[in-house]
């Protein structure tokens, strides 16, 4: 995992330093199960993946589950630019949740306190114990969507170069990934899930769902404190120098 992260950071124009920090703490487990998400983070192993009931119990360490045929080929993990939009988004989501769980929520950091304040404002009707996890899921959904679009632009750029074309003519078209880029930064509603144990006013425990309204201000927390990027949601400002360098170079000095 560390190898493909380093490659993506160096060559893919993706702000994945956060993932490089948390990856060494994760046990990577490839699977072929249909009842698991293709990419999923679990603070502790879910249960033995093998069908044999006598299979050895997995080590009790944070685990990143990846669907074998989706994320690997010939014994190696696929590079991010080899992944489809959905596959990349799932992996980014799992890495973001792992980072929040292991690097942020387990500490008394300024970021943790900032998340608690935002969660109190956004989710007043949710049990205080579940507010931050719900907010974090919403932020992870936003971040993984954004990173998957950036990754897909990388893929399209590579394909275009192979055919002698570039993406610059599409920059101002609203129906392209460039248009989607700006929409992602707007206020949005995301679905968050949290586990509520039995005995808390309910007959049985289980997963609960709630809608989380994530404002542009909330998204700034993830952009600034986790992705550590200068992205603003303005396609020209964020992507112009990358995909239209000739136009950027011709701009007069202000």
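Q: What amino acid sequence fits the structure above?
A:
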């Amino acid at each position: 995992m560390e190898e493909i992260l380093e490659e993506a950071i160096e060559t893919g124009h993706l702000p994945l330093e956060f993932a490089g920090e948390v990856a060494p703490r994760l046990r990577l487990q490839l699977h072929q199960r249909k009842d698991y998400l293709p990419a999923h983070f679990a603070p502790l192993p879910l249960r033995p993946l093998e069908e044999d009931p006598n299979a050895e119990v997995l080590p009790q360490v944070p685990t990143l589950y990846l669907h074998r045929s989706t994320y690997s080929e010939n014994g190696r993990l696929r590079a991010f630019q080899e992944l489809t939009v959905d596959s990349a988004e799932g992996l980014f989501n799992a890495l973001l949740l792992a980072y929040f769980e292991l690097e942020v929520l387990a500490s008394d950091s300024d970021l943790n306190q900032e998340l608690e304040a935002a969660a109190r404002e956004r989710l007043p009707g949710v049990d205080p114990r579940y507010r931050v996890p719900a907010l974090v899921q919403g932020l992870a959904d936003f971040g993984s969507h954004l990173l998957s679009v950036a990754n897909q632009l990388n893929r399209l750029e590579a394909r275009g170069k192979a055919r002698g074309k570039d993406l610059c003519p599409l920059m101002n078209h609203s129906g392209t990934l460039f248009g989607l880029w700006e929409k992602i930064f707007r206020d949005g509603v995301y679905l968050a899930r949290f586990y509520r144990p039995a005995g808390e006013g309910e007959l049985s425990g289980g997963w609960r769902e709630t809608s989380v309204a994530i404002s542009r201000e909330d998204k700034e927390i993830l952009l600034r404190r986790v992705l550590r990027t200068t992205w603003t949601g303005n396609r020209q400002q964020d992507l112009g120098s990358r995909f239209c360098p000739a136009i950027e170079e011709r701009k007069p000095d202000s």
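Q: And what stands out in the fold?
A: The longest strand covers residues 188-196.
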